Amino acid sequence: MAPDPEADYWVVEDVAAYLGVAVRTVYTYRLRGQKGEPGGLPAEDRMFGRSPAWRPATITGWKRPDSSTGRGRPPRRSTTESA
User: Fold this and answer.
1) CA-CA distance, 64 to 44, in Å (whole number)?
2) DSSP element (H, E) containing 11
3) Which candidate, 63, 61, 53, 62, places its Cα nearest to that of 8?
4) For residues 74 and 6, what is the distance between their CA atoms, to the nearest angstrom?
5) What's the CA gap between 76 and 78, in Å, rounded?
6) Alpha helix stretches (DSSP H) within 36-76
7) What is the pTM assigned to this prediction?
């Protein structure tokens, strides 16, 4: 279910639903942002206890990392070689 764009804040689960990723991925993006790495989430707008929260506009205005950055597992090689 999509998060409410009129809500005051989105928690991690809302951000994950908006981005279409796992909750753990949001935490990874957040950690990258804290380290100043490219593709990291912007700093949270508020903390509710130990839970980060962002205004919807903060997330909708954020440029998501490009999935074609070259990271991840390399493509599988063919077991047959062409002559």
Assistant:
1) 15
2) strand 10-11
3) 53
4) 41
5) 7
6) 56-60
7) 0.76
Inter-residue long-range contacts of 4-7, CB under 8 Å, 24+ positions, other chains counted: 4/56, 5/56, 5/60, 6/56, 7/56
Q: Per-residue pLDDT tens for 34-49?
A: 999 988 999 999 999 9
- Which percentage of the chain shows pLDDT scores above 90? 67
Provide the residue count of the chain. Answer: 83
Query: pLDDT tens across 58-70, in order?
Result: 999 998 876 555 5
The DSSP element (H or E) to which 51 belongs, if any, is strand 51-54
